[in-house]
Amino acid sequence: MTVEKLVYGGDGxxxxxxxxxxxxxxxxxxxxxxxxxxxxPGLVRARALQILEPSPxxxxxxxxxxxxxxxxxxxxxxxxxxxxxxxxxxxxxxxxVGKMEPPAEIAVVAASPWGYRNRVQLRVADGxxxxxxxxxxxxxxxxxxxxxxxxxxxxxxxxxxMLPDPRWPRMLRSLELFTDEQHVQLNVIETERPVARRFxxxxxxxxxxxxxxxxxxxxxxxxxxxxxxQVNRFLAERLVEAAxxxxxxxxxxxxxxxxxLFASALARKFQRVTAVESGSGAARxxxxxxxxxxxxxxxxxxxxxxEFLQDLQQAADFVLLDxxxxxxxxxxxxxxxxxxxxxxxxxxxxxxxMARDLAGLAAGGYGVERMTMVDLFPQTFHMEVVVLLKx
Length: 391
Fold this sequence. Notes:
Layout: E1 5-6, E2 11-16, E3 19-24, E4 31-40, E5 43-53, H1 79-98, E6 107-109, E7 119-125, E8 128-132, E9 139-141, H2 150-162, E10 172-179, E11 184-191, H3 197-206, E12 210-211, E13 215-217, E14 221-223, H4 236-244, E15 251-255, H5 261-267, E16 272-277, H6 280-292, E17 298-302, H7 305-310, E18 318-321, H8 330-339, E19 343-348, H9 351-363, E20 367-374, E21 384-390
Parallel strand pairs: 3-5, 6-20, 11-12, 15-16, 15-18, 16-17, 18-19
Antiparallel strand pairs: 1-2, 2-3, 4-5, 7-8, 7-10, 8-9, 10-11, 13-14, 19-21, 20-21
């Protein structure tokens, strides 16, 4: 088959005998020989057996486990090519799902494509630490990870050295590392039974800078064990800039506020900011971060966004929305259309759900002023999108 294009999810799309064939780790224009792994009516998921005619854009992947590890999808393509492909995929999702034409120009914000991740989740099994293999629950062991930050890789090397020791808890199945390059937070994600305190004491001896509980990210944001924070250490500030650019007025809402990454920027532009976060731990971090920064004009509400909007009598001048991957959903879109805030900024990590929500907001009278693809996840199909809308 000849690969036609890349699609959201990291696969290359080809057609054979009237069926769509999706194959990972290929590039448009390549003639490939592939083996069907999963077949449905009209759709085949395949594995490339041979690249018969490689694309001139294909480059050697720097990671020795690329193609087996399921973490990265595009290491075989130059970075500028990845950015162009993601922008094209974003435009296609807006047309396909949103049934609307994307802006003629979609801005791209990018930084270093390597060593950017400040947070990783690691699996533990069969005496190895690593990530899941592509389309599999099997473990792909890693000694280091080229997209992880230097501090993360230091800890991965330390954990690999600790793993054979009898003190390592054999019931531990996955853990998470989070760092600001000075301090490290280690969270147990999955275990068959509680991990004893002595394991964390041992980790504290082996891992310099290990903190208990919340991590004080760069001295600006307290981030608890269950609180969300952007994973690209190079682009968090530029993401905020893209989201609040041109925002003005007296009042602002920061919905799905997390620990206050956007609220702190909005507080410098508006007289009053209401930050809404449903998670109790994140809401506590949000309150702490606002008070530490002396942001007296930031008011925290711990509740679901749907509940907050339902009882609202008047919208703010500017509303920033940073929903989870599932997007805003119909109730929130409907309520925003009823409240009619003059300007919105939506930060989305899934272009399909974003396009669905955009269609609903467009039906309520909103138009897209600007769309920006912020590449928080180089070497992967994931992307962050900032959309500024105006009535």
